[in-house]
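Lab notebook, design round three. We kept the backbone fixed and only want residue identities now. Task for the bench partner: fill in a sequence for the structure below.
Input structure tokens:
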């Protein structure tokens, strides 16, 4: 029993305030080394002059290695005009390949990776105090405060569940330029053991664009492999 108690992972202090749960979920990301995520979609979206697009076949995935400054991101959207996006980041070098008609919009070749250099950022993401203040300030501006729902399981871990609901009027209050004619709901499940977000669901219901949602699931402390594409698959603008 003593051995089992010593080997178990201690849980973070319990939280009840939904704003504090969201704040700690954001702050917890400062200690993340590696992660991977997957995204799925439901519903359809109405695009002006292009018709309705079924989002249920679209998938998204990505992974991040923060210490080694590596990341990759993929989107496969067969019903969105056959669009497929592959993006890689190795330190300050980015590679982007887009298959489908959106390649011309992004000014990249559809059959090769376009190589670019990303300027170094001067931001300090490990400034926890600033992160806490920024998150709390943003939450205080919400016209409708977040709500804590019943705790749930995220896989085999216990999670908090917090919901944010924003109406069209709320969005207009936050951003006077907002033209979204509908409601946005964000559900966030964060792990009780360390507050890290495990699942996020974005839901949108509008009269103009339709009803759709995106579910993102996140895993941490995973093995991440990101390599530059072969030289014959790369072009430089």
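Proposed sequence:
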């Amino acid at each position: 029993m003593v051995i089992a108690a010593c080997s178990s992972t201690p849980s973070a202090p319990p939280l009840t305030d939904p704003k504090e749960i969201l704040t700690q979920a954001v702050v917890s990301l400062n200690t993340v080394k590696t992660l991977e995520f997957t995204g799925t979609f439901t519903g359809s979206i109405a695009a002006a002059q292009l018709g309705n697009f079924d989002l249920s076949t679209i998938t998204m995935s990505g992974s991040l290695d923060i210490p080694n400054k590596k990341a990759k991101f993929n989107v496969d959207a067969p019903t969105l005009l056959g669009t497929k996006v592959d993006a890689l980041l190795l330190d300050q070098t980015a590679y982007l390949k887009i298959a489908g008609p959106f390649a011309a919009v992004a000014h990249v070749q559809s059959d090769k990776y376009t190589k670019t250099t990303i300027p170094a950022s001067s931001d300090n993401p490990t400034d926890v105090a600033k992160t806490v203040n920024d998150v709390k300030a943003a939450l205080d501006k919400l016209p409708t405060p977040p709500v804590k729902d019943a705790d749930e399981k995220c896989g085999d871990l216990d999670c908090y569940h917090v919901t944010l609901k924003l109406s069209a009027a709320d969005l207009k209050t936050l951003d006077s330029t907002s033209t979204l004619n509908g409601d946005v709901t964000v559900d966030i499940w964060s792990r009780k053991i360390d507050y890290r977000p495990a699942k996020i669901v974005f839901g949108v219901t509008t009269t103009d664009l339709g009803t759709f949602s995106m579910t993102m699931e996140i895993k941490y402390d995973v093995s991440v492999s990101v390599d530059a594409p072969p030289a014959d698959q790369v072009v430089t603008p």
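Keep this in mind before ordering anything: Residues 1-9 have pLDDT under 50 and may be disordered.
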